[in-house]
Design goal:
This protein has one domain (3-212). The chain is α+β, with helices and mostly antiparallel strands and 213 residues long. It has helices at 21-34, 38-50, 53-63, 115-119, and strands at 3-20, 77-82, 89-94, 97-102, 108-111, 126-143, 155-161, 170-177, 180-181, 183-194, 198-200, 206-207. 27% of the residues are buried. It is elongated, with a radius of gyration of 20 Å. Strands 1, 2, 3, 4, 6, 10, 11 and 12 form an eight-stranded antiparallel beta sheet that branches. It has a four-stranded mixed beta sheet with strand order 5-7-8-9, with no helix packed on it.
Amino acid sequence: MALYITTQGDIDQIIVSSLPRAFVQKIYRHCWGKNNTPYFAGNCFRGVLYFDERLAAKYAEDAGFPWRGWLSVDKFYHRTGSSYEHGLTLAVRADGQASTLSSVGIPVIEARPQLGDYLGRLGEDEVLCLLGSVDKGEMVFSLPDFTGPFDPDKLAVHVDRLSDLYCEEAVVTGLAYDGRRLSMESGDSRGKNMIDPLLVGRDGKLLDMYDFA
């Protein structure tokens, strides 16, 4: 007998990596040349990083490093999971029975990735970059050798809170039942929105386009 729990809603994919400052500067200068307002220049920068692989690869080559898209960057941190929020719904199937739970009241086991852990890995001419996407979809958790009946009081949610990285996202990294971690895999998804890139200097301060003028 197996236990299956499905979460539905926003699915976050978050990556923390490093980028050469010269690469970021080239993209911003390109965007300032096309757009004379911060709003449109920011949208242009976002578009080049996420969608214009040809142009990004050209600027990356000029900066002396390979670019094969944002999902292929060297990763200090990489998580994909449901966006945790009060009101997250969990659909449970166990012992031939189906039920629905709210995340409200379920114990949360938090991890908080620390900015300082990644800043120490930056090179002299690099900046820290947080990239990501938000899909609509579901994550499926399973425990193959479950023995019932299902007791919701034995359930716990593992969450990564990214507030120390200047990001308000909180990502569900797993579920545990009676102390045992369930396996996790992606289910169906539809649509995708991209997170505005966050750039951080070696001193830990959040950067904006004017820092690359």
